[in-house]
Amino acid sequence: MALSTPESATTSAWPAVPGARGRFRGRVGITRFGRSRSAVVGLAIVLGLTLLSLAAPLAAPYDPLATVPGEQFRPPSLAHPFGTDQFGRDLLSRTIWGGRTSLAVAGLAVGIAALVGFPLGLWAGYFSRSFVNTAVMRLTDMVLAFPPILLAMVIVAILGPGTQSVTVSIAIVSIPPLTRLARAAMLTQLGSDYVTATRTAGASDRHIIFRAILPNCLPPILVQVALAAGTAILLEAALSFLGLGTQPPAPSWGSMLYDARSYLAHAPWYGIFPGVFITLLILGLDALATGLRDALDPSHRS
């Protein structure tokens, strides 16, 4: 006599609980995020500065590279709201275009680091008793033993100054923290009942990692991406301030601070505005990360 099988058991070979739980958590998280004033303000700051930088060809009133003899070190005015520099270049235009460079470097570096670091961490956590985990974590520990700015400086010194070298160096120093976080997130989920059920159903390791476990690891991953972006902005600014990043005459926030260091006594506006934009973006990313953490993982709320 044949046994009757529930319809839900015959429609799919994989457990449906993780996906449904992830979608429900996502909807609840979006609602909580929208209720967080600091998170919304942080998102608005990040989006505002990003859109302003992307619209640089339209938003900048002047050519950021155009020098105007006789207009050197003009203080802020209606014609030049941020003033001018030692070559008569409009600082508002250079700040807008500089944001485009800084955001592009930080965004690309964090993107590369995420594409490399998260899969490495997930695989290392899933195969926690294998050589893969040992090799990945020992390499990660070696990189983390050095201060990020020092390691980035060494990499740029090897590759040569420039925007591409800075992007590569920031990506390399950003990979280990993302790898460790992804591994920790994997280990917290590995013993869950839904993972056991998915494995019992015959799913492949790739399916278990990326289809079953990854959606439930997204909350800490998204928070870490926002924090990594803030760190990348600071690293880009620091390297450019040291003369290792974006080379003149191309603007970036860090290189503008580097150029302004010799003129702060009689042209203080030169370095103020790039510094303000860097500070605003870092604060916005921090508020965004905090809002994401509180919305997606309320247990961390104070």
In short:
This protein has 302 residues and is mainly α. The protein has helices at residues 7-11, 17-35, 37-54, 56-59, 91-126, 131-144, 148-159, 163-190, 193-200, 205-241, 253-260, 269-296. The chain contains twelve helices and no strands.
Q: How would you describe what is shown here?
A:
The protein has 302 residues and is mainly alpha-helical. The protein is built from twelve helices and no strands. The longest helix has 37 residues. It is elongated, with a radius of gyration of 24 Å.
Based on the model shown, name its key terms.
disordered N terminus, 0% strand, 12 helices, mainly alpha, elongated, 302 residues, MetI-like fold
Query: Residue ranges: pLDDT <50 for 5 or more in a row?
Result: 1-17
Calculate the mean pLDDT score and round it.
87
Q: How would you classify the helix and strand content by structural class?
A: mainly alpha
* Total helical segments: 12
List the secondary-structure elements in sequence, H or E: HHHHHHHHHHHH
Helix content: over 70%
